[in-house]
Every structure is written in structure tokens, then in C-alpha cells.
């Protein structure tokens, strides 16, 4: 998986989970009630769908404007889901709830952008370190040649544990 695809997956997961968590918090701050279990289940399904769509659309895999749009749509979808699924508002939700949802969108966008940047830095550093530690293959003449193949710990465990020995020979 390329770095851009991994970042898109990270963004989709972040948008989906943050949309659910921050929508419930913003809804509560704005005077709405906490959702019951059936409403919460529907909310999680809707926010998971928002996250999956965000991760798969190429336009949403780059840039802060697309991220803010995805988070805003996630907040709208979450608010609509909570409102329509037997969820009652306080008598005057209005601007306080709208402000709480907008604040949640901006705060989440900042956090996701910071996480993406940190992810890129950490994965690049790991790539540089692991590339320098890659074992070199030794040819029959004693020359070393880099294979370019990096085996992970699971591959090493499987190579060590799978026997190449055949069944006993019949006499």
C-alpha cells in the first residue's frame, strides 16, 4: 500500500470515529440529550459510512479544505441521525448547538492534519532506518549485493518454524 493510500485510510478512520465522538459531545454541549443504544448504533453505522467514503474518494485524500468538508458532512450526518432517531432536543438548541458542531469540526480537522503529518514523518523515519538495516546478500565470490527484499518478523518466524524435511524414507 502506498503512503497516499495509507494516509487516506488514516483520514477515513479519523473522520468516521471523530464524527461520532465529537457529534455526541457537541450535541450534549448544545443542549441535546445523549443518544440511547439504538440511536447510538445507527449513529456509529452512519459515521463508519462517512469514514469509509472519505477514505475511498481520491478528492478527500488530500488537503485541509477537503478534510473540513468531510468532517462537516460527518457532523451534519451525525446530527441528523441523532435528531431523526427518537432523539429529543432541548427547547432551544439553535446557535449553541450549531456552534458546538462547528467547533468540533475545526478541532477535529486540526487534530487529523497533525496526525497525518506525524504519520508521514514517523513512517519516513522508519523507512530510512529499516532500509539502512536491510541485510545484504553475499554472492559466491564474496561480493555483497542488496536484495531489496525486506522480510518482516512474521516471515522470519515462518521461515524458522516450517521444516523443509520430508517424511521418513521407507526401507
Taking pLDDT < 50 over at least 5 consecutive residues as the criterion, the unreliable ranges are none
Strand order of the largest sheet: 1-2
Silhouette: elongated
The proportion of strand residues reads under 5%
| Main beta-sheet annotation | 2 strands, antiparallel
pLDDT average, as an integer?
Answer: 75
Number-wise, the strands total 2
What is the C-alpha radius of gyration, as a whole number of Å? 25 Å
Order of helices and strands: HHHHEEH
Fill in the keyword field for this structure.
68% helix; mainly alpha; two-stranded antiparallel sheet; 171 residues
Topology (elements, then pairings):
Elements: H1 3-29, H2 37-56, H3 64-84, H4 94-132, E1 136-138, E2 144-146, H5 153-161
Antiparallel strand pairs: 1-2
Helix pairs in contact: 1-2, 1-3, 1-4, 2-3, 3-4
Write a compact overview of the structure shown.
The chain has 171 residues and is mainly α. It has helices spanning 3-29, 37-56, 64-84, 94-132, 153-161, and strands at 136-138, 144-146. It has 5 helices and 2 strands; from the N terminus they run H-H-H-H-E-E-H.
Q: What does this entry look like structurally?
A:
Helix 1 packs across helix 3 (64-84) and helix 3 (64-84) crosses helix 4. This protein has helices spanning 3-29, 37-56, 64-84, 94-132, 153-161; strands spanning 136-138, 144-146. 68% of the residues lie in helices and 4% in strands. With 171 residues, it is mainly alpha-helical.
